[in-house]
Design a protein that fits this description.
With about 150 residues, this protein is α/β, with parallel strands linked by helices. It has five helices and six strands.
Length: about 150
């Protein structure tokens, strides 16, 4: 699967720039399982943060995230792959494209377990085609990814 992770408040603390606990581990596990990890942000291409936190070993691409009209803007942006799942603190993109809405991560919290939850939801989805976790959303019925009929 192509899994797109947001940067601010999702994998990096929006207030202090710290890496959310478990991000490196989930990225490693997901890539070892054959998934492609992409990172995007509504404030631009965030390669610096990916390199700063040594995530570049796991990340297949870094892009600018659309903030509205998600499908049309993904197609127009030149992003070479379409998200199978998104992981984001922003509910609208998760509801439209399908994926996992995470609790916002503002600053270093050693006890934060959100990435473990994300991994478990992805594992459920891969195995069962769904997850019963309330953070999981299937794509909107109007979503029409490239190649869909």
């Amino acid at each position: 699967m192509n899994i797109f992770f947001d940067v601010d408040y999702t994998i990096v603390g929006g207030a202090d720039g710290t890496l959310r606990p478990g991000v490196s581990e989930i990225f490693q596990r997901l890539t070892q399982e054959g998934h492609n990890i992409y990172v995007w942000s509504g404030v631009g291409i965030r390669t610096y943060e990916i390199q700063k936190h040594n995530l570049n070993l796991y990340v297949s691409g870094v892009f600018e995230k659309p903030l509205a009209n998600f499908e049309a803007k993904i197609r127009a942006s030149g992003i070479p792959v379409y998200p199978d799942l998104v992981v984001d603190d922003y509910p609208e993109i998760v509801t439209t494209l399908g994926g996992i809405q995470v609790r916002p991560y503002s600053f270093a919290l050693a006890h934060d377990k959100e990435m473990e939850r994300v991994y478990n939801i992805i594992a459920d989805y891969v195995q069962n085609g769904h997850s019963d976790d309330s953070a999981f959303r299937l794509p909107s019925p109007t979503t029409n990814p490239p190649g869909a009929s």
